Amino acid sequence: MPVLIRAAAVLTAVLLVSNAQSQPNVSSDDIFARSLGNFTAAPRAWSLQYRPGSGGRIYKVSPGVAAQMESDLVAVIDQIAPTVVSLFIKAPPESKIQGEPPGKTVDSGSGVLITSNGYIITNNHVIAAASNRVLEVLLSDNRKFTGVIVGTDQKTDLAVVKIEGEGFPFAVWGDSLALKRGRIVIAMGSPYGLHGTATVGVISALGRDINMNSYEDTIQTDAAVNPGNSGGGLFTLEGKLIGINSAIDKRGSGIAFAISQRLAQRVSQQIISAGKVVRGWIGTDIQELDANLKKVFRVDGGVLVPSFRENSPTAKAGLAVGDVILAIDGVPVVNVQDFREKVANLAPGTVIHLLIARKETQNTLKLTVGEQPLE
């Protein structure tokens, strides 16, 4: 795991690596350079040593390497900072609402520019109060724009805002599927209105289901995230956008969540192109199968159909209450979340084949996917 070290106050830094074989002093620039990821290391600037009686090896990093690591981090933050904006919802000039004098900030948050022509991704809850108010967008160079809401998606807590202009700096999407726990990340936003705040932490967990939205794929991090950070970006050390900061767990510190790139990019692209998110729908309720139900239905996986709507795609395909859906087009169904995501990602009108278990037999049914209602 990469180790981030501030060099100003230390001469050396030590990372204990357990379960290593006993051996004399060893050096390997290549191994350490790989462990630093995006950071660079000067040749022979570190050593790997075995400490007798410690049961492990230690990395000793020279001040020169630590300074280079710090310099690289500063460069990455400077690179991504212009892509992150502050959002302020303000009372309009003609406001007559009690307690909201003209120009008063009612709510605030963050956003990330994702195109050069002014499209900004943020959280739906950040701009929820913008109706009949002014949405002000503040860029890193202190330019101010009036934002227009392009579209929202309550089911993922995402939204897209547009400002007029061209040539804006914008974030480059990364790949959240390639992430690992322990990777260093940078959270950028405007906590409490503090524009352009950067914090550093690691990825604590991946694929969290925090039961806040209908569709979730979240990244947990210990990078400091506070009210106002919502809608801001979570970046890798390469400066790639891999998440949209969206929630914190107030029960403790260092527990924050970001909507993954995989979900955020797909939703924002649909909003930009169509003004809304279109999802597939088959009209059935689904239930998780616990160990007992798997024994009862004599299956190893899948989801149970406890009920479904009349005249829905499920009804027309001939599914019955008590069926277990095992696979979609030959791809096994892992759990409820997996099934809902698979169906939602299908275009309305798509014909699919469901492998189902009914009593002690398995059958394949053909189903035409419908469009998911707004509610």
Describe the protein's architecture and organization.
With 375 residues, the chain is α+β, with helices and mostly antiparallel strands. It has 4 domains: 49 residues, no CATH class; 81 residues, Trypsin-like serine proteases (Thrombin, subunit H); 102 residues, Beta Barrel (Thrombin, subunit H); 92 residues, Roll (Pdz3 Domain). Helices cover 16% and strands 35% of the residues. The strands form 5 sheets. The chain has a 7-stranded antiparallel beta sheet with strand order 8-7-4-5-6-10-9, covered by helices on one side. Strands 12-13-14-17-16-15 form a 6-stranded antiparallel β-barrel. Strand 2 and strand 3 form a beta hairpin. The radius of gyration is 25 Å and the shape is globular.
CATH uppermost class of the largest domain: Mainly Beta
What is the CATH superfamily classification of the largest domain?
A: Trypsin-like serine proteases
User: What integer is the average pLDDT?
Assistant: 84
Kindly report how far apart the N and C termini lie. 44 Å
Low-confidence stretches: 1-46
Strand content: 25-35%
Number of domains: 4
Shape: globular
Q: How many β strands by DSSP?
A: 25
